Amino acid sequence: MSVACEIMIFNTDRINLLLASSDLYVSLALKVPPKRMLSIKSTSDLLILRSDIFEASCSGLILSPRRKSLDLPTIKLGSRLKSIEDLQRRIPSTPSMVNLSHLTLSGDIYFERNVILKGSVKILAKNNETIVIPEGTVLENQVVIGNFQNHRRSVFV
User: Fold this and answer.
1) Does residue 7 fall inside a structural domain?
2) In CATH, what number is assigned to the domain containing residue 45?
3) pLDDT bracket for residue 86 (50, 70, 90)
4) Whole-angstrom Cα distance, residue 90 to residue 87?
5) pTM for the model
6) Total number of domains constituting the chain
7) Active-site residue identified among 41, 68, 76, 126
8) Cα separation values, 86 from 32, 62, 71, 77, Å
9) Is residue 72 part of a domain?
């Protein structure tokens, strides 16, 4: 994400600290509509933010003009992707999700580079199985259960 201007990021948790300070003579609060705020409370939220769904501009992050829907995708991550460390280890290069509507990942799953996810995608690794999504894979409206080797490289359903 390279932008020729500085993007200001403000952590709203610091508001409580600032309001508690006795050095403040005047306090001010802003009401931000939900559509203008993107909270990051889980790794699924972080995955959306890291993806190509958003682009950086001088005014902050904006929804990519390439995205067909104004709604953000629904992302459900299994227990193996709940920590930031797990997310970075299993998905070191965030797949393209600009045209993704739903994503479900469950089990022992790893992504290689340049993966594209479109529509509704579910990847479910069975117990004691690992699924590695190979580099350059395109999954569109696809359910992957078990070993990925049984699936074609690019799948459009």
Assistant:
1) no
2) 2.160.10.10
3) very high
4) 5
5) 0.72
6) 1
7) 41
8) 32, 27, 26, 11
9) yes
